[in-house]
Design a protein that fits this description.
The structure holds 3 protein chains of 3 kinds. Helices cover about 50% and strands about 15% of the residues of chain A. Chain A is α/β, with parallel strands linked by helices. In chain B, about 25% of the residues lie in helices and about 30% in strands. The chains are: A alpha/beta, B alpha+beta, C mainly alpha.
Chain lengths: ~350, ~270, ~300
């Protein structure tokens, strides 16, 4: 084997130089590129949205724009934004994750809620139950989740927004049921999590665990995710149970000011977020089983799958999002305490 | 090292195992700067000549792993000679070879040397080798140069006990110099003491300088430990009263039983002050 | 001798020569059981998963299998994996040869420390390795402010992936070569120097050819790990579709989109790589065992 080391050195040096140059050119290239850092279940949604926006933008300005997406557990995604991923917009699963980015990295302005209509919520959602075909364990409402032989699949609230919504929905239900008794509500949630065999990192992971690996009896999940499972895995295997009351789930969107200013993409990013409020986008949300802000823009058959049930807002029950995050999910919060009690 | 132009031959050959014999020999020439390098054809000729010299002319395309130890060492020598060094340094080159091959190579090396006239320094701890091969011998002990001289000189007139001990088996005897003679155990030996030397001295005797003798003539005494045959002679091991072992050679038919007491008389020896 | 001596004349001797029957059958039984256990273990943990990958990949036919690779995201993942390996492997090759050469042939202050550092990536979990890079190069990290100021993106971009891959594959070449070069010693290099070669020439013409098979073996393993690394790359990648997903990451993404056939199809690429690596590795071990591992010499 003839080996020319000086040649090898040159190749390596060139490769390194090339990669550093590549890194340095990323901001320059981003002028016609946006990055949307999103939470787990929205993969299919933003494929459609991004394509529609690119077309719309091209028609309006003539500029070709590519919108890239990155998906993962909402909390984990917030962490990557804090650590420097060059996101232009964030579309996360729960307001406290955006608050965290604003507070820790200062890349998002603290009053981001005021920048867009409906506190940054072009759509909302809720939590429903996915059960096995025929609903063999008879799960009709939240109370049924703590029946002794019922196994619940739900993601880890620390990393998943969906996981947090499930947690808060269960708590909110028990709080209301027991005449606003906090102790009883905590106990209910504690019992629920004792019946969870697997805690995945993201909502998508829990779905795979339930639907593909066949674990558990009920999957409390985002409404949109339940319908997606129907489409992907077949209606003959599952049933969707919409409980009489559930939580008003808020997956907000925001502009990452620091990044767009540095990359020079503010105009495009703001247009992208505005686009989410257009009729075209709202119809796409409904198509993917999200609850659009403008119900009238959606197709009738899509709306039929999103019945108007009784939804409670967790802020009404527990206070501001800072309080909610601290009380339940921060270190030493309710989730940690329940975990300790259960061992 | 390059400038000093010293050619090395190592004890374990250090041939380049991934190169053919011819490439091994040509290595030094090929390693030169382009400006100093001879033409390809010239190198090939040089290699051929050297292969002829070491009598391995047809081995050019073989690999070192296919050769015996003796052949490898010859190639190593050719390789060192190829760059025409001013001095050739052989560091115990035959140490890894068995006794017969060693003898053959010794003879062969002498021939090569005479043919090429190459200045050669040969390092060895084998005194037979040193005495057989060299024009001049340098004896080193404890990092010091003890003596330099022809093989005859160092054998007949060793400058120190170190030289003496290196060049052959010696039996060390406590003796007294008195009146110009050397006495062992009270009895006079034919060995004369150098002028002026009086008092305790060390007498070194070669095995062949001893002779079996009766008690009234013997300088040394002991008991036979064992007796065995080696190269046509009888080797007899004798336990001396001072605990040391003494080995003498005798003719083949001298057979002595173990445990038998013997006496030896000293016919000659070398004297050194204490 | 006028008569042949029949075996019957030595009954006692014959009986003591033949081993007792029970020992033979007992040994055979134990031997076969152990072999069966080993085969079952291999089948369960190696063969079964491999077969499953390919079975699932082709579950919906060749068309669906190939469709998985026509996606632009799949192209991007393949390209990124190849680029990463193309940078990481040569880098570690050069570093590994240099480090092994220094460690094996010289004594210097800090030598043992260097050996320990080289082994570090093996004892650190890959996820932690990735995390280290986030903690150093992230916005909130040690070099964060400096990088932001100079507009350089390391993590959540290709350089971060390459760095993380280099880190976890660091030790492969060095660890393979150090014992080999130590065993080969410095004698041949010394001989080359005495013949007038420069240090560099000796390195090129003596050292490198002596380690060529060990080197190839090491590069093979290094490449397999570089292409297959998941944990460390996952942490620093950011999972930006079409940009920072390597093949292993892409497999996870497809799986999370319920696109199981495509997921296994892409995984089959990696499984294929593993098989090819295994075959070449075995061939090298079989033919060049002495040149690969130190200590196997028969003198």
């Amino acid at each position: 084997m003839r080996f020319s080391n000086s040649l090898g050195h040159t190749v390596v040096a060139a490769a390194f130089g090339a990669s550093l140059a590549l890194a340095a050119t990323v901001p320059a290239r981003a002028q016609s590129e946006l990055l949307n850092v999103s939470y787990d279940p929205t993969r299919e949604l933003y494929k459609d949205i991004n394509a529609a926006f690119a077309e719309d933008w091209k028609a309006k300005t003539g500029e070709t724009i590519t919108v890239r997406a990155a998906h993962g557990g909402s909390g984990a995604q917030a962490r990557t934004v804090i650590d420097g991923i060059p996101a232009d917009v964030v579309t996360l699963g729960i307001p406290s994750d955006i608050d965290a980015i604003a507070r820790i990295s200062k890349k998002i302005s603290p009053d981001w809620r005021t920048k867009l209509p409906n506190e940054g919520l072009p759509y909302t959602s809720t939590v429903v139950f996915l059960v096995r075909k025929g609903n063999p364990k008879g799960v009709k409402d939240w109370g049924d989740l703590v029946k002794p032989d019922v196994k619940v699949i739900t993601p880890n609230p620390k990393t998943s927004a969906g996981g947090r919504w499930n947690f808060l929905a269960a708590w909110g239900y028990a709080y209301e049921q027991n005449n606003k008794d906090v102790e009883k509500a905590n106990a209910f949630v504690g019992q629920l999590y004792k019946q969870v065999p697997v805690l995945d990192t993201g909502a998508r992971g829990s779905t795979v665990t339930f639907a593909q690996r066949g674990l558990g009896d009920v999957l409390p999940t985002w409404e949109n995710e339940a319908y997606l499972v129907f489409d992907e895995f077949g209606r003959d295997k599952f049933d969707i149970v919409i409980p009489p009351t559930s939580i008003y789930a808020e997956p907000p969107v925001a502009l990452v000011d620091a990044n767009v200013d540095k990359k020079g993409t503010r105009k495009q990013a703001e247009a992208y977020l505005q686009f989410l409020y257009t009729d075209q986008a709202q119809a796409i949300f409904a198509k993917h089983h999200y609850r659009p802000l403008k119900r009238e823009a959606a197709k009738k058959e899509d709306l039929a799958l999103l019945p108007e049930i009784k939804l409670f807002k967790i802020e009404d029950l527990q206070g501001s999002w800072d309080d909610i995050q601290k009380k339940n999910f921060d270190n030493g919060g309710l989730f940690d305490q329940l975990g300790k009690a259960g061992r | 090292m390059q400038e000093r132009a010293v050619g090395f031959v190592f004890q374990h050959y250090a041939l380049f195992k991934h190169l053919t014999v011819a490439d091994n020999i040509a290595y030094g020439l090929n390693a030169r700067k382009r400006s100093d390098r001879p033409a390809k054809a010239e190198i090939k000729k040089r290699v051929g000549d050297l292969l002829d010299l070491i009598k391995l002319s047809t081995f050019g395309d073989r690999y070192p792993s296919q050769l015996s130890g003796g052949q490898r060492q010859r190639i190593a020598l050719a390789r060192a000679l190829a760059v025409e060094p001013r001095v050739l340094l052989l560091d115990e080159p035959f140490g890894a070879l068995d006794a017969q091959v060693r003898k053959d190579l010794r003879r062969w090396l002498r021939e090569i040397h005479d043919r090429t006239g190459q200045t050669t320094i040969f390092v060895t701890h084998d005194q037979d080798e040193a005495l057989e091969l060299s024009d001049r011998v340098a004896v080193l002990g404890n990092g010091r140069l003890e003596q330099v001289g022809t093989p005859d000189e160092v054998q007949e007139h060793p400058a120190s006990p170190t030289v003496l001990k290196f060049l052959g088996d010696t039996i060390e005897v406590e003796a007294i110099a008195q009146g110009g003679h050397v006495l062992v155990n009270g009895r006079e030996t034919p060995v004369s003491a150098p002028d002026g030397l009086v008092g305790p001295v060390k007498l070194y005797v070669r095995p062949w300088q001893l002779q079996f003798a009766d008690a009234h003539e013997a300088h040394l005494e002991g008991f036979v430990r064992s007796s065995y045959r080696a190269q046509g002679r009888q080797r007899i091991e004798i336990d001396r009263p001072n605990g040391k072992l003494l080995v003498v050679e005798a003719s083949d038919n001298a057979r002595l039983a173990a445990g038998r007491p013997v006496g030896l008389k000293i016919n000659n020896g070398y004297v050194f002050s204490n | 001798m006028s008569e042949a001596i029949a075996p019957a004349d030595f009954p006692a001797a014959e009986a003591s020569l033949r081993p007792p029957a029970s020992v033979v059958t007992e040994t055979g039984w134990v031997r076969w059981t152990l072999i069966a256990v080993a085969v079952a273990f291999l089948a369960l943990f190696l063969v079964l998963p491999l077969v499953t990958v390919f079975a699932q990949a082709f579950a919906k036919g060749i068309g669906a299998y190939l469709a998985a690779f026509s996606e632009p995201d799949a192209h991007a993942a393949i390209k990124l994996t190849l680029i990463t390996a193309a940078i990481a492997v040569p880098f570690n090759l050069v570093f590994g040869v240099t480090a092994a050469w220094a460690i094996a042939k010289f004594q210097f202050w800090g030598r043992d420390l260097l050996v320990t550092l080289i082994d570090l990536p093996f004892s650190v979990s890959p996820v932690v390795s990735g995390l280290i890079y986030v903690l150093v190069f992230g916005s909130q990290g040690l070099l964060g402010p400096w990088l932001i100021e100079h507009d350089i993106q390391i993590i959540f971009a290709v350089p971060g992936i390459v760095l993380a891959t280099i880190f976890v594959t660091f030790p492969f070449v060095a660890r393979q070569l150090i014992p080999l070069m130590q065993e080969q010693g410095t004698v041949e290099e010394e001989a080359a120097l005495t013949l007038g070669a420069t240090g560099w020439h000796a390195f090129r013409t003596v050292t490198l050819p002596n380690i060529r098979w060990g080197l190839l073996y090491a590069v093979l393993l290094c490449n397999a790990r570089a292409m297959g690394e998941f944990g460390a790359v996952s942490v620093v990648s950011g999972h930006i579709r079409g940009l920072t997903n390597t093949l292993p990451l892409h497999v996870e993404i497809l799986y999370n989109e319920y696109n199981f056939v495509a997921s296994f199809a892409v995984a089959s690429l990696l499984a294929g790589l593993a098989l090819v690596t295994l075959v070449i590795k075995s061939v090298l071990e079989w033919r060049y065992a002495d040149d690969i591992a130190a200590g196997a010499r028969r003198h």
